Amino acid sequence: MTEVDALGERLFGALTGALELFTVEIGRELGLYAALRDGPLTPPELAKAAGIDERYAREWLEQQAAAGFLTADFALAPGVAEVLLDEGGPAYAGAASQFAVGVALLTPRVIAAFRSGEGVPYSAYAHVRHGIAGFNRPMFDHLLTTAWLPAVPEIEAGLRSGARVLDLGCGMGYSSVAMALAYPAVTVRGVDLDEDSIAVARSVAAAAGVADRVSFTVADAASVTGSFHLITIFEALHDMGDPVGVLRNAGGLLSPGGSVFIADERVADEFTAPAGEVERLQYAFSVLHCLPATRAENPVLANGTVLRAPTLLGWAREAGFSSPAVLDIDNDFWRFYQLH
């Protein structure tokens, strides 16, 4: 196969995958997978159960079966319930279709931003906002308090004894709530610039029964005040328009013996091409979402999604942390850091 043929096949496969993700999002938003959870349905039965048009129901069912998401008799294929329906479960990946639709909807605005040098505000990326929360929630629910935080004994000990926690760039609050649920003595304050995310976060905390110990504020991470034993930043530092200012402010908020715990993208220390699959994904997100969203904030700098370890460690030293460290915590997508 020639290089020309291989590239053509690669683009054709990518097109098929992208279009199938859009059909997955149709199934998610309309509740079609949920309607099929208890068993197969015919097109008329699905149309009635989901409140949709019968002709569209038939086309979607056939397409999903052709793609392998359903069986030939229109039942959920093995694994589909865990991957597309069980939000918060360890195998959940339904956020992939939210990401795909979200960036596709905003691509014309990104093209305009390329020409003007301006940005696309984070508030415009509604599907992406929910996709980020959906992708990260299983990790917060299943790994944050069972593997990541316990990997640093002094952090774990502080949480067990009732630490005050500041969760910067908290998004929809799943990280804040996970910490409160696992450590009954802590209080957590979540901070984010996005008003819609904070509104969702408050409802998440209320539903989990921890609203008495978890609060959320719309604020700039570089200007938060208070005193905290632990400050966390989960996959948000690369999106902040003044990362050194945020870290410098965080250092001033730490109580004696406190730490900043950061998770951000696991990418190579230096630019290489071609890159691995995860870094390719991060770069695509950077072009389509993270860089435009940061440019919309009139930033001190706009890093984009690809935050390399030497860059983050350099920011930390500039912010006044003398010995920032990369932690030995395994994850396919994130690298972890401790600053104190």
TrEMBL record:
Residues 23-70 form the S-adenosylmethionine-dependent methyltransferase Rv2258c-like winged HTH domain. InterPro entries: Methyltranfer_dom, SAM-binding_MTase, SAM-dependent_MTases_sf, WH-like_DNA-bd_sf, WH_DNA-bd_sf, WHD_Rv2258c. One of its GO terms (biological process) is methylation. It comes from the Bacteria. One of its GO terms (molecular function) is methyltransferase activity. Keywords: Methyltransferase, Transferase. Residues 160-273 form the Methyltransferase domain. This is Methyltransferase family protein. It comes from Actinoplanes lutulentus.
